[in-house]
Amino acid sequence: MKTYWIGRSARCHIKLNHNGISRLHIELTIARDGRYYLTDCASRHGSFINNNQRWKRFKQTYIEADQPLKLAETQTTVAQLLKSIQTKSSKLQRNPETGEIMS
Fold it and tell me: What CATH number corresponds to the domain at position 56?
């Protein structure tokens, strides 16, 4: 399993400097079976997934890579978030055995 923090904080693996994004907004976990699991970290303005053209607030949920996701007013997808990690990968240090990002 790999876990990434997403938010405004410099400690986050994926940093988003947008209005309404909390310092630690959500946690993204890639399960051993490859599924994506999101946990809202008590964000002030909420986290939402789009199901059947309707935004639904969540605390914890599985999500598809290309399923619309809204963090406060910022709309994205898991695929877009993960792509931002890949473009920064030369600056990040990873554990050679697990591939996880090391702090």
Answer: 2.60.200.20
Which residues, 6 or more positions from 44, have their beta carbon under 8 angstroms from its beta carbon? Answer: 20, 22, 72
Does any domain span residue 10?
Answer: yes
Nearest-Å Rg of the Cα atoms of the chain is 13
Q: What is the pLDDT of residues 61-77, one digit of tens each?
A: 999 999 999 999 999 99
Residue 51 lies in a domain: yes
Please check whether residue 98 lies inside any domain of the structure.
no
Range of the domain at 80: 2-88
Sheet holding 74-76, edge to edge: 54-57, 47-51, 69-71, 74-76
Q: Is residue 21 part of a domain?
A: yes
pTM score, two decimals?
0.80
User: Which pLDDT tens digit goes with each residue over 6-54?
Assistant: 999 999 999 999 889 999 999 999 999 999 999 999 999 999 999 889 9
Rounded Cα distance between 34 and 37, Å, is 10
